[in-house]
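Course assignment 3, question 2. Fill in each field.
Student: A.L.
Task: Predict the tertiary structure for the chain below.
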Amino acid sequence: MLKELTIKNFAIIDELTVSFEEGLTVLTGETGAGKSIIIDAVHLLCGGRGSHEFIRHEAKKAELEGLFLISNPHHGVVKKLADVGIDIEDESIILRRDINQSGKSVCRVNGKLVTIGILREIGASLIDIHGQHESQELMDDKAHIHLLDQFAGENLKEVKESYQELYKQYKKWKKELDKLSENEQQIAHKIDLYTFQVEEIVDSNLVIGEEEQLQEQKKKLQNFHKVFDKMSTAYDAILAESKGLDYIGTAMADLQDIADVDKNMMELSENISSAFYILQDAAYQLKNELDEMEFDNNQLQIVEERLAAIQTLKRKYGSTIEEILQYKDQIQHSLDQLVNRDEQIQKMTEKIRQIEIDLVLEANDLTDKRKNAAKHLSIAIMEQLQELYMEKATFSVMFHESVKPVYNENGLDDLSFYISTNVGEPLKSLTKIASGGELSRMMLALKSIFSEHQGITSIIFDEVDTGVSGRVAQSIAEKISGIASNSQVLCISHLPQVAAMADQHLMIKKEVSGNRTFTVLEEVQNEKRAEELSRMMSGAEITSTTLQHSKELLKLAKNRKKIIRNL
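Answer field:
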């Protein structure tokens, strides 16, 4: 449910915080007081189209924030939040949206920045807004099949899940078949291209680690003369005549001569001896390396050409030799499929044919259960319409037959809701209903049935009772109250019958202070409720008659709510 709403610098609202209760909350007030501004704020908070025009005059930005409480861990919004990495703490979801002067928005959910698209998806799971000429899912032909499936319940759900699992396999194999069934010219081009690429990579005889070895070899060849000269100088310094090793040898012999005389020289003598032999071995290794060193300019050219060839392959097929070889394996697989496509097409076609046999059985089962549910739904809708004094209306779920079966994730069915509101008139699509009053009652009838199936946290009715009066007004009031037993309902109304059924009654009015207009909201309780209902009946002047009528209406509403909600 929507627990709290905070609005700052929005339209004529300076700053407003309102807490909502469970059940039915009715917002009343004179025309132009700002009732619809509250609904506009909720609509924008849940991802509606924003504009800088909503920002209060002389303010820098409009700020909207709403606290929603979700006690059901299986509510659809929980998964949506998990998919975008947002956690729910203490069963709370906080939506926030700031609209700046450029018209751009900053959106957050539980403190995390989100796109307007994500905010809209989350908002659609929490709030369902209905106006006299707007009813979202109920007025969308494409959504009717989902509404029927929700009404059908678990019995259809199991069949649908089984069908959809099979349909996934069907789509996967169809996609593979479509790839293999491209036109011959495209396939020929691909075969030529893949063959060339595979041969080019295979002929290159690439070896993992080869490039690093070649780079090291190139480095040595490019610095051959420098290395040779330095090694020669080092060798001469150690072993040439009258050079380092001779002097160290003399020192070693002298220390050995006195080691027996002076015990302190024993360790030093051994260290000098070790150094002498180490240097001697190093000198021999240098000599061997120098004898084997021979500069080959052709070898440098070969190494550079090989590295250039590897670089060319890297530009085409991957950033490393490993990636190039992986790419070769991939296109070799694709090439094998293309070369042997006739055989593969035959196998895939047979596989798809076998799946289609099962798919049509599952789809037909799904259709049978939908048609059975459609009969029950039609009866339920007709009962609701009779209670709303549309006893002459006829409702039906129309299944549209297609010449050639077309599978989709919902089966083979294409359906929509049809209605006739008057005797002798043909059934027409629900979306083609013209009368505002009839549309309102039709929407309430559908909402009465679907509200417990849709899992929407809060439902908002924005003056859906416009154009009705008398017994129809009372029936609408009772219907809205009934819906509030399954979901929190926020309702803007000019009908005293609807206001009387409220569990929470909020009155909105305008005040002027310091040459500025402000919207003020207050909760109406006890005697003030009767006064507000009296004002709604008679206008500005409250009479003893209207006041008494209001009290009787509140008493009647209290008794009717007990019956409607089985309290």
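Instructor remarks: The two ends are 20 Å apart (CA to CA). Residues 47 and 120 are 4 Å apart (CA to CA).
Grade: pending
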